[in-house]
Design a protein that fits this description.
The complex is a heterodimer of chains A (112) and B (111).
Chain A (H helix, E strand, L loop, with lengths): L2 E5 L2 E4 L5 E8 L5 E7 L5 E9 L2 E4 L6 E6 L2 E6 L8 E8 L6 E3 L3 E5 L1
Parallel strand pairs in A: 2-11
Antiparallel strand pairs in A: 1-3, 3-8, 4-5, 4-9, 5-6, 7-8, 9-10, 9-11
Chain B lengths: L4 E3 L2 E5 L4 E6 L6 E7 L5 E8 L4 E4 L2 E6 L4 E6 L8 E9 L4 E2 L5 E6 L1
Parallel strand pairs in B: 2-11
Antiparallel strand pairs in B: 1-3, 3-8, 4-5, 4-9, 6-7, 7-8, 9-10, 9-11
Classes of the chains: A mainly beta (112), B mainly beta (111).
Chain lengths: 112, 111
């Protein structure tokens, strides 16, 4: 069966510091991968998606970037965090397109 | 945007009662998915209903889709306290089938 991992679970970082969040999927190959952010009490906002290694699409302009160095690894990064980057970051995967998306446990980021 | 909008924003019912949550969206979709989120946790996938389907069941869950009205509903029958959570609908569109989420319905089931 497939599982999706995210780490760390929680993170407190000062403004201006770099960020690296990692997501890995097990038990499947060539998944579609997604990064979402959820602000407190709100729905999820799609940040990036990837349909293959090295293929990244960005949905909204922001202070963040994403990379997919391996088939089942998706990384969310920032060179300098802003206060507004605080939130709950969720990674998801799906089999190809038009199918269910399955979410990881999330990383709660607080920028101080 | 194409995000789903859930209604009501909050719903409080007694254990054993049925809970109905509605979702509206704006343009054509490929499918629509419903998710549950317990406080501070990740999202759990509940049901996917495709644009050519009108109704789908999974255990105590029943989802309907009316593409002419651009709306969907999620019915939870015989609710339990463990059903307390936020529920989100997510229309799926776009070349990579991106999901767009609304703010959700906060369901509270009282024991």
């Amino acid at each position: 069966s497939q599982t999706i991992h995210q780490w760390p679970a929680t993170l407190v970082q000062p403004v201006g510091s770099p960020l690296s969040l990692e997501c890995t999927v097990e038990g499947t190959s060539n998944p579609n991968l997604y990064w979402y952010r959820q602000a407190a009490g709100r729905g999820l906002q799609l940040l990036f998606y990837s349909v293959g290694i090295g293929q990244i699409s960005s949905e909204v302009p922001q202070n963040l970037s994403a990379s997919r160095p391996q088939d089942r690894q998706f990384i969310l990064s920032s060179k300098k965090l802003l206060l507004s980057d605080s939130g709950f970051y969720l990674c998801a995967w799906s089999f190809g397109q038009g199918n269910e998306q399955y979410f990881g446990p999330g990383t709660r980021l607080t920028v101080t | 945007s194409q995000q789903g909008e859930e209604d009501p924003q909050a719903l409080s019912i007694q254990e054993g009662e049925n809970a109905t949550m509605n979702c509206s969206y704006k343009t054509s979709i490929n499918n629509l998915q419903w998710y549950r989120q317990n406080s501070g946790r990740g999202l759990v996938h509940l049901i996917l209903i495709r644009s050519n389907e009108r109704e789908k069941h999974s255990g105590r869950l029943r989802v309907t889709l009316d593409t002419s009205k651009k709306s969907s509903s999620l019915l939870i029958t015989a609710s339990r306290a463990a059903d307390t959570a936020s529920y989100f609908c997510a229309p799926q569109t776009g070349s990579a089938r991106q999901l767009t989420f609304g703010s959700g319905t906060q369901l509270t089931v009282l024991p």
